[in-house]
Design goal:
Low-confidence stretches: 29-33
CATH architecture of the domain at 32-85 and 94-130: Sandwich
Structural class: mainly beta
Largest sheet: 4 strands, mixed
Strand order of the largest sheet: 1-6-5-4
Length: 145
């Protein structure tokens, strides 16, 4: 998961908003759902005992989400489905993206992948990744022949 400490970058949020504006400014107004890849936003925090990952998954049913760990890579996958309530509905604007998503995170060696737990609450997936205590390896002197 290669954790990097968050630091405030001053103007960065302004530039992010500007980028988002230009990305959306030239896209025509959509009246049909957009299907395709999307990525849920995540927060990753850490304390002495565990790493916690929280993923926002609004309108995603718990049964449509999977979490797996393989070769020290944690992968979230799932799908947000577009459900039209009735044939009488005429959408004027559809901005949310629907379809499958996948997010992967490389886990550090200091976690216990056998004890990872996950719960889903109000559209937020909480994944708790316990850490294991690692002993510092003693320096090994190598004899030169």
């Amino acid at each position: 998961m290669s954790l990097i400490q968050y630091t405030h970058r001053g103007m960065t949020p302004w530039f992010d908003d500007l980028d988002r504006y230009f990305d959306e400014a030239f896209v025509p107004t959509r009246s049909q759902p957009r299907e395709g890849a999307w990525a849920p936003r995540v927060d990753i925090s850490e304390d002495d005992g565990k790493i916690v990952l929280r993923a926002d998954l609004p309108d995603v049913d718990e049964k449509d989400v999977s979490v797996k760990v393989e070769d020290s890579v944690l992968t979230l996958a799932g799908e947000r489905k577009f459900v039209k309530e009735t044939d009488d509905e005429n959408f004027h604007r559809v901005e949310r993206t629907y379809g499958s998503f996948t997010r992967s995170f490389t886990l550090p060696e200091t976690v216990d992948t056998d004890k990872i737990s996950a719960k889903y609450d109000n559209g937020v997936l909480h994944i708790s990744i316990p850490k294991v205590e690692t002993k510092a390896k003693a320096a090994k002197v190598i004899k030169i022949n």
